[in-house]
Amino acid sequence: MLRFDDRVAIITGAGHGLGRAHALLLAERGAQVVVNDLGGALDGTGASTGPAAEVVELITKNGGRAVANTDNVATPEGAQALVQTAVDAFGKVDIVVNNAGILRDKSFGKMTVEDFDSVLAVHVRGSYLVSQAAYPLMKEAGHGRIVNTSSPAGLFGNFGQANYSTAKMGLVGLTKTLAIEGARNGIKANAIAPIAWTRMTEALLPAEFEEKFTPERVSALVAYLVHDSCESSGEVFTVGGGRVARVFVAEGPGWKTDDLTPESIAGNWGSVMAEQPYVLTAGDSMKAML
Ligand SMILES: NC(=O)c1ccc[n+]([C@@H]2O[C@H](COP(=O)([O-])OP(=O)(O)OC[C@H]3O[C@@H](n4cnc5c(N)ncnc54)[C@H](O)[C@@H]3O)[C@@H](O)[C@H]2O)c1
């Protein structure tokens, strides 16, 4: 059994849904958990201490160790205070699961700057801020595990979610660079793109998904990714309903000529669009252009 004894985990947005399930699983397997949740509505408005406190109570009742934190991950002060909560309660931070999220769905033409900025603030800025606040501690320890929460909507696009998809694909870039920079200090970062039945999706998913797409079926992957034994870093996985799959950003072999014109591109569009063999890194992409 993969256990987390002596590990300290921060889970953001852990008062409901996926984060709650991640917190319960890690605590059940020995981790000391900081349950962060602002306790607001799905659109990010409002705040309440209730959801984080309830999850902590449940963990404690089951014999686990956890503390609540209700800071807003989207502000630098909130992210710092969250990491400080972990240090004050448990002395360190080994694991950060950036899971907090909100929705402001609108079709592209109707989306306001406020809808766009507020969604990016929680998902992208929040993940950046909390990871960065924990980063010096992880560097010092020579060990760290970070999981960011992307979405199939970001990887593949989704109607009415221009703000959310931008944020969720942004997290892929953040994860990949964190993995590259963190490698020399034993810090691994991966991203998940889940599907689960939560308050965020219950109005969108077909009713028959409720039983199959449980948050627990996502938490199992999160637990593996933040375990010491997991070697992967910089990867993205879709996960839901019991299935886990690697998603990779890849470039095709491309088409190259010394006489690149709009017409030669049009005439060789089939080769430009070819998918294999894959190029998987920025370095290999540049080499292929030489
Ligand atoms: N449920 C799905 O199918 C699905 C699919 C793709 C991605 N996701 C992502 O998974 C994550 C969890 O979503 P969920 O489905 O469990 O939804 P949820 O609404 O149940 O949970 C999100 C939690 O984040 C908290 N939160 C929001 N803003 C916060 C802030 N600024 N600071 C701290 N906490 C904050 C909320 O209070 C809430 O408890 C989100 O990032 C979401 O975008 C979910």
TrEMBL record:
InterPro entries: KR_dom, NAD(P)-bd_dom_sf, Peroxisomal_Beta-Oxidation, Sc_DH/Rdtase_CS, SDR_fam. Gene3D superfamilies: NAD(P)-binding Rossmann-like Domain (3.40.50.720). It comes from the Bacteria. One of its GO terms (molecular function) is oxidoreductase activity. Its EC number is 1.1.1.-. This is SDR family oxidoreductase. Belongs to the short-chain dehydrogenases/reductases (SDR) family. Residues 7-203 form the Ketoreductase domain. SMART domains: PKS_KR (SM00822).
